[in-house]
């Protein structure tokens, strides 16, 4: 049973470019979460999605950031016009429909903005 | 809102010894869950153990146990018989169980280095 998959593992972008981060949840999981980890910090919640719905985006910056979890395919976290402050590790987690206590994390995407 | 506090400085632990990592939390939620995750130098986040606020017994998972003291709002992780592979950052997290809330709130982590 494959775990949460994220790609790419590392992403380098220049200021002003777009970054697209992908997350495929564990098989049978329909809840996806995105977190951001700045250097020397714990993870900070960004957004919680179910298929085709954004449930909670209270942690998302108001501008440039968006997330989706389409009916088919992976969840996408999109960062437009990246700035150096966006450099961080972005983690995706998933949980199953019924037993929602534990969130299982992917390996993360390390974004570096030059 | 939930707040997690992990304030221990980095720790060096002798192999085969036990280590306790402190975690205190603050919440107004009546029902909540507490989690510990491990982040080795490779960067992934590995789930270790879960404790529900309504659980009367402390959670255990192999060499990991959670010393849950609800009145003190603490949820310390105990790793018994440390191994070199236990060297990592350890994060305490919590989630309030109320409708619509699936956010995990994390502490800043405890660094553990196991020495032979």
Describe the structure.
- The complex is a heterodimer of chains A (114) and B (116).
- By secondary structure, chain A is mainly beta.
- Chain A is built from no helices and 11 strands.
- In chain A, strands 2, 4, 5, 6, 9, 10 and 11 form a 7-stranded mixed β-sheet that branches. In chain A, strands 1-3-8-7 form a 4-stranded antiparallel β-sheet, with no helix packed on it.
- The radius of gyration of chain A is 13 Å and the shape is globular.
- Chain B is mainly β and 116 residues long.
- Chain B contains no helices and 12 strands.
- In chain B, 0% of the residues lie in helices and 51% in strands.
- Chain B has strands at 3-5, 11-14, 19-21, 24-26, 32-39, 46-52, 60-61, 64-69, 74-79, 88-96, 105-106, 110-115.
- Chains A and B meet through strand 4, strand 5, strand 9 and strand 10 of A and strand 5, strand 6, strand 10 and strand 11 of B.
In short:
The complex is a heterodimer of chains A (114) and B (116). In chain A, 0% of the residues lie in helices and 52% in strands. Chain A is mostly beta strands and 114 residues long.
What keyword list fits this structure?
heterodimer, A: 114 residues, mainly beta, 7-stranded mixed β-sheet, 4-stranded antiparallel β-sheet, 0% helix, 52% strand, globular, B: 116 residues, 6-stranded mixed β-sheet, 12 strands, 51% strand
Helix content of chain B: under 10%
Structural class estimated from helices and strands of chain B? mainly beta
Would you report the number of β strands of chain B?
12
CA-CA gap between termini of chain B: 41 Å
Average pLDDT reading of chain A = 92
Q: Report the uncertain regions of chain B.
A: none
Secondary-structure element series of chain B: EEEEEEEEEEEE
Elements of chain A, N to C (H/E): EEEEEEEEEEE
> What is the 3D shape of chain A?
globular
Tally of DSSP helical segments of chain A: 0
Structural class of chain A: mainly beta
The N- and C-terminal alpha carbons of chain A lie at a distance of 37 Å
State which percent range the strand residues of chain A make up.
over 45%
Largest sheet of chain A: 7 strands, mixed
Based on CA atoms alone, the radius of gyration of chain B comes out at 14 Å
Largest sheet of chain B: 6 strands, mixed
| Range of strand content of chain B | over 45%
What is the typical, i.e. mean, pLDDT of chain B?
Answer: 93
């Amino acid at each position: 049973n494959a775990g949460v998959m994220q790609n790419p593992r590392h992403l380098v972008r220049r200021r002003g470019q777009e970054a697209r981060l992908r997350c495929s949840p564990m098989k049978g999981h329909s809840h996806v979460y995105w977190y951001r980890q700045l250097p020397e910090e714990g993870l900070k919640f960004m957004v919680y999605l179910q298929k085709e719905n954004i449930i909670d985006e209270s942690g998302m910056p108001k501008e440039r950031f968006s997330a989706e979890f389409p009916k088919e395919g992976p969840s996408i976290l999109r960062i437009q016009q990246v700035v150096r402050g966006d450099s961080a590790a972005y983690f995706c987690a998933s949980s199953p429909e019924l037993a929602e206590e534990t969130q299982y994390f992917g390996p993360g995407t390390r974004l570096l903005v030059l | 809102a939930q707040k997690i506090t992990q304030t221990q400085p980095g720790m060096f632990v002798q192999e085969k010894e036990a280590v306790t990592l402190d975690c205190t939390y603050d919440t107004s939620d009546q029902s909540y869950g507490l989690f510990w995750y491990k982040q080795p130098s490779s960067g992934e986040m590995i789930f270790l153990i879960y404790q529900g606020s309504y659980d009367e017994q402390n959670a255990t998972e192999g060499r990991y146990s959670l010393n849950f003291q609800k009145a003190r709002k603490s949820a310390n992780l105990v790793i018994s018989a440390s191994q070199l592979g236990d060297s990592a950052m350890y994060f305490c997290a919590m989630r309030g169980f109320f409708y619509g809330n699936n956010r995990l709130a994390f502490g800043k982590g405890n660094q553990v280095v196991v020495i032979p």
